[in-house]
């Protein structure tokens, strides 16, 4: 019922499905982010501050540039974020033993606990929001979104400077 009312509210059913799709993806993204921030605020985090913690918890130590790439953000933006997380005692920068010029990021014990609390809150949020969605529907939705994501990635790659077909 919620999905139907949202569809009508933000993407009239008289519009072509492709138009509804784009509008609905944008609206669901906005609403989902709002719920993520709401779930995290009680742990002193926002989505922006939780993502690096969750990524480091999942992948272990990472160089700053690898974390920026994994998060899809620019290094200068990540540096400001890491400065704030380090000031809170959640993240440490250490010398990379393989390259002393590079820094490797580690979660502190407090960062580990905060990342776990964030993940626990997100598990509850996802369960609540997806309670009325069957596993089959969720799998089908993920397939469609990954297909569109793949197309978007391929098209972005062709526009990248130096991509095949660019004039020299």
UniProtKB/TrEMBL annotation:
UniProt domain HTH marR-type: residue ranges: 18-150
GO function terms (MF aspect): DNA binding; DNA-binding transcription factor activity
UniProt keyword annotations, A-Z: DNA-binding, Transcription, Transcription regulation
SUPFAM superfamilies for the chain: Winged helix' DNA-binding domain
Biological processes, Gene Ontology terms: response to stress
PANTHER family: TRANSCRIPTIONAL REGULATOR SLYA (PTHR33164:SF64), TRANSCRIPTIONAL REGULATOR, MARR FAMILY (PTHR33164)
Name of the featured protein: Transcriptional regulator
Organism the protein comes from: Azorhizobium caulinodans (strain ATCC 43989 / DSM 5975 / JCM 20966 / LMG 6465 / NBRC 14845 / NCIMB 13405 / ORS 571)
């Amino acid at each position: 019922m919620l999905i139907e009312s949202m569809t009508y509210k933000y993407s009239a059913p008289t519009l072509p499905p492709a138009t509804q799709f784009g509008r609905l993806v944008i609206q669901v993204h906005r609403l989902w982010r709002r719920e993520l921030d709401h779930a995290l605020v009680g742990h002193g985090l926002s989505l922006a501050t939780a993502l690096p913690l969750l990524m480091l918890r999942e992948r272990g130590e990472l160089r700053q540039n690898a974390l920026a790439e994994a998060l899809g953000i620019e290094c200068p933006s990540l540096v400001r974020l890491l400065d704030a997380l380090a000031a809170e005692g959640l993240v440490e920068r250490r010398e990379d033993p393989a390259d002393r010029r590079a820094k490797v990021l580690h979660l502190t014990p407090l960062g580990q606990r905060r990342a776990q609390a964030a993940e626990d809150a997100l598990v509850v949020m996802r369960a609540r929001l997806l309670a009325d969605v069957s596993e089959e529907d969720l799998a089908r939705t993920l397939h469609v979104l990954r297909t569109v994501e793949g197309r978007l990635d391929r098209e972005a790659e062709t526009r990248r400077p130096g991509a095949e077909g660019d004039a020299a």
